[in-house]
Amino acid sequence: MIGLLRGTVAAIGEDAALIDVGGVGYVAFAGARTLTRLTIGEAALLHIETQVREDAIRLFGFLSEGERGWFVQLQTVQSVGAKVALAILDALGPAQIADSIATADKAAFARANGVGPKLAQRIVTELAGKPPPRGFLAHATLTGTSASPAPAPVLSGARTDAVSALLNLGLDRDAAARAVAAAAKALGPEASSKDLIRAALKEVNEQRG
User: Fold this and answer.
1) Is residue 8 part of a domain?
2) What is the pTM assigned to this prediction?
């Protein structure tokens, strides 16, 4: 299986890019979010998900391991195939997907092409309470390329610490994730763990009435 491609962008199509790796061209299917950040003639590093079917082997490329992980996890939901998973990743980044699941924001998923209200509800329901995907290259250091570095992990250290603190206070993981996601949405990405914990506890207390 191919898990990573490092090479030069030889061509960019409507739904795929051709990556030249040592004189061999690999076709990597990708969403618009990925394709628009590639430039013909420049170096690229793509995290690859290989799908093997009876009639074909297809490579799907992503700029981060987090995106690749969500591509796989989204397809565990009934009626979500590769095309729909790519559409969701075009509409929502990894952090937004995690937050939308935690806060049961089905409307966020419904913004993706091919996702109607029923499927959006199914995505939120089936993935609720599950931890975000952790890819096999999540903590690896990739060197030897001039390509842009992968985005940061889905959960920042502050958010992870805040969820852990709420778990230690007796909340279940689903409730803790929802509260911290709501707090992060209100406070912004630079919020400290202390601020997130305070805001999340306020959220929990308001829900309890």
Assistant:
1) yes
2) 0.72
